[in-house]
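Reply to dn_fold:

You asked what the input looked like. This is it:
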Amino acid sequence: MDSALLRLLAMRMRGGLRLRLMQLASLRGVLFFLVLGGIAWLLITTGQLNPKTQLFDGAGLASPVLRDQIDTFMPLSLLAMTLLTVLLTTGPSFHFSPTEINLLFVGPFSRRDLILYKFIAYATGAALSAALIAPFAQSQTGSVLSAFTASFLTLLFVQLNSAAVGMAWQKVEGTRFARLKWPVTGVICTVALAAIAYAWASPDYNLFDLLSGLRQSWIGTVILIPYIPFAELFLAQTLFPQLALWATVATLINVALLWAVIRLDGHTSERSLREHARMSDRWERMKQGGSFWATERSEIPSIRHAPMLGGLGPMAWRQAIKAVRNSSKLIAVFLVGAGCTGPLSSMAGISIIGDRAMVALFFFFGYILPRTLICDFRGDLTRMETYKTLPIAPWRICMGQLVVQVLLAYLIALTMIVSVFLFEESMAAPVALALAAFALPLTLLIYAIENTIFLLFPAKLIPMGRADFEFLGRALIEFIAKASVIVVAVSLAIGVGSITFMMFKTTLLLPALASWLSLILIAGVAVIVMQYAFRRFVVAEAFD
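and this is what came back:
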């Protein structure tokens, strides 16, 4: 690779380190560091990193049950990611910013040098992410070195495999083989639905048993050969020969993928440039209040004057109009998906009120939904200066930004609760009513925390490329911080309800009401903290 690009990489890393140190010296940086350190300390002191920790199904982290699950489902997950890359191939394989395109693409550098330059940048991000993952994976792998090696090589594989598969499909597009995409997709979906129906019809056989049987069959083994070494990395018990052997195999696979990416890049360079421009346009649209996932804008009639409500009404109405114009299709998809939760879980034999299902639902409502449906401060970067100069109380501005986002998320949650209530026999009507009541303050708390973090630490809400490891690491830390606050809030609300029950010895109605009021109070405190973050937001420090 050209020495100028190596020097540019070194300067970028040095500049990034200097920027992080400057941020750490600020009040926000100190708070961020204390929160991160507190989370790590809690995980260590509570035994979450101990190999004897029990999982939801009672299996320890070092138990044969978990090892079988990793060996079975990790290769299948990597295969699913590959298939989704082909089906939803959007965005450039390696993202170059507009500045890099303007300066590097016209320089005396070959395409191979530019791909290697970007790969090294991604590898640096993967190393940082692996360093964050290593303490959590150490309990399974046995040592920090093995955990770091397994995480680092797997993250590199995710990026390179996604890039190689995406480029290969881009090369195929325009040929007669591209016509097979949707017929093959239809066949795969039909087979998957038939398998789910079969698992639902068999009382002693569920979807996980079906996937396990596929993994253990010779056909599944042949299909999953490229993915099995990365599962074996996390299952290696000794550094030598097991870890050394599988690390060598994984490295060879990554080298082969990098070679394939360099070879395929010559056939997809023009489309890559178009994708870079499209990604930049989408980010600019997000800063102006649009949705990243919206591809079309729908024109709908609007009223001439929104209700004032002390200044809260116009902002809430504007966010509602923006949601309908930019994200109507996305909202419809989420509502349909929420409505199908009950019948699909019943067909798959999965209890929606089980521990694993509750964790999946929390991940959906706490991470996926806030990141995709954006109708608050996070989509109004270009209007922050206007908001700061409005003669309106900051708490009204904050509530005006939150009300539409909270109501949309609450509507999706209600749809899911009704769907589960109709198809889940173990969910009684009082439980469904309690979930519907507690979902509203919990949703307000989630989005108040989400906006507070964004106002204190503004950052891009979309990954730059298919595997932006800096984005993934930051999103992971934010999710852990948000989950910790929510767990503490829910624990406090449950504690108030328990104390109320022990004091009055009544039915569960009064303790439930006390817990609900406590959760509303905590959500109100979160809005006050959000107001403080809005006051401290400096428009001049906003990123491009």
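DSSP finds 19 helices and no strands in the chain.
Hope that clears it up.
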